[in-house]
Design goal:
The complex is a heterodimer of chains A (174) and B (107). Chain A has 174 residues and is an alpha+beta fold. Chain A has two domains: 2-93, no CATH class; 102-171. Chain A has four helices and six strands. The mean pLDDT of chain B is 90. The chains are: A alpha+beta (174), B mainly alpha (107).
C-alpha cells in the first residue's frame, strides 16, 4: 500500500534522518515530487536511505555513469529531484555512507552550501527588488525575505561543519 | 615520474585501492577487498571510491580492463605508474615507522 506525506525540508540531513526513521518503521520512500513523499510498506529497517546532491543533472552523461556505478555497488537510486538523488541500500549489507574520506565529505557539504547560498541570495534580491515596486509586491517580498531568513542558520551550520572537518583533516587521515 | 605530486602521501583509501587493483576488479570488489584487508576498519563509501577511480584514471595510475563476459561492470587494474606510486608510498611509510621506533624505543 502506498502512503503519501507532505513535508518541506531545507536541511537535507534532517530530511535524511526523517526518511530513515520512516524506513525503520517499515515505510520505504519510493518517489518524491516537490514536498510530496510517497512511501511503500515493507519490512521495518530493510533499507538505509542517503541523499546526495549530484554534480550535475541526473540525465548528464557524468551523472548517468555515476548512477550506473552506484547500481553495481548495490545502491539503488529510488528517485531524483532536480540535482538531488535519493539512494537506498539494504541494511543487511552493513553501514551505508556515500562518502568516507574528509575530501569527499567536505566536497559534498560545499556543493550543498553553494546551492543553499545561491538560492538564499536570489531570494534576498527578489525581496529587495519587490519592496521598491508597489504595496502588492511588498507582500511578495515578505515571502522571499522569510525564505532568506530561514536559510541563514542552516547555511551557517554547514559552514561550521566544513570548518570543523578541515580542522580534523589537519590532524587525521580518513 | 614527471609529476612531483606522485611523491606526496596517499590517502589510506587511495593506497588500498591501488593495492586491490594489483588484481583486476570492479567497484564493489574493491570495497570488499579494502574492508577485508583492514579487518573491517575501512568502509569505503561508493561516492568516495567513484571519485578516487576517476582521478586515478586521469593520472593513469589505473586503467580500465576490457572484459568479455560481464561487460556492464567495469573492471580496473593498476598501471606501471600506479605500481611505482605504491612503492614510493611504502618507502615513505617504512621511514615513518623506522623513525618512530628509533625515537620512542631507541631501536
Amino acid at each position: 500500500m502506498e502512503i503519501t506525506k507532505l513535508r518541506l525540508f531545507i536541511n537535507y540531513e534532517k530530511e535524511e534522518q526523517w526518511l530513515n526513521k520512516m524506513a525503520a518503521e517499515g515505510l520505504n520512500l519510493s518517489s518524491y515530487k516537490f514536498g510530496r513523499y510517497t512511501f511503500e510498506e515493507g519490512p521495518p529497517g530493510e533499507y538505509i536511505y542517503r541523499l546526495e546532491l549530484l554534480k550535475g543533472e541526473p540525465t548528464d552523461e557524468q551523472s548517468r555513469d555515476y548512477l550506473a556505478f552506484m547500481e553495481d555497488y548495490g545502491v539503488e537510486c529510488v528517485d531524483t529531484y532536480m540535482n538531488w538523488a535519493f539512494f537506498r541500500k539494504k541494511s543487511t549489507e552493513g553501514p551505508f555512507e556515500i562518502y568516507s574520506d574528509f575530501d569527499s565529505i567536505i566536497g559534498h557539504y560545499k556543493r550543498v552550501t553553494y546551492l543553499l547560498g545561491t538560492v538564499g541570495v536570489v531570494n534576498l534580491f527578489i525581496a529587495l527588488f519587490n519592496v521598491t515596486l508597489s504595496q502588492y509586491n511588498m507582500y511578495l517580498s515578505i515571502v522571499n525575505f522569510i525564505i532568506f531568513v530561514l536559510f541563514i542558520p542552516i547555511l551557517l551550520s554547514y559552514i561550521r561543519k566544513i570548518n570543523d572537518l578541515k580542522k580534523e583533516q589537519a590532524l587525521y587521515e580518513k | 615520474m614527471a609529476e612531483s605530486s606522485e611523491h606526496q602521501p596517499l590517502t589510506e583509501a587511495v593506497y588500498y585501492i591501488l593495492l586491490a587493483l594489483h588484481t583486476p576488479m570492479h567497484g564493489y570488489a574493491i570495497m570488499q577487498f579494502t574492508k577485508e584487508i583492514s579487518n573491517g576498519r575501512m568502509n569505503l563509501g561508493p561516492g568516495t571510491l567513484y571519485g578516487a577511480i576517476k582521478t586515478m584514471l586521469e593520472k593513469r595510475w589505473i586503467q580500465a580492463v576490457e572484459t568479455e563476459a560481464d561487460s556492464r561492470k567495469k573492471e580496473y587494474e593498476v598501471t606501471l605508474i600506479g605500481k611505482q606510486v605504491v612503492q614510493n608510498e611504502m618507502e615513505r611509510l617504512q621511514e615513518l615507522v623506522k623513525n618512530g621506533k628509533h625515537i620512542t624505543r631507541g631501536e
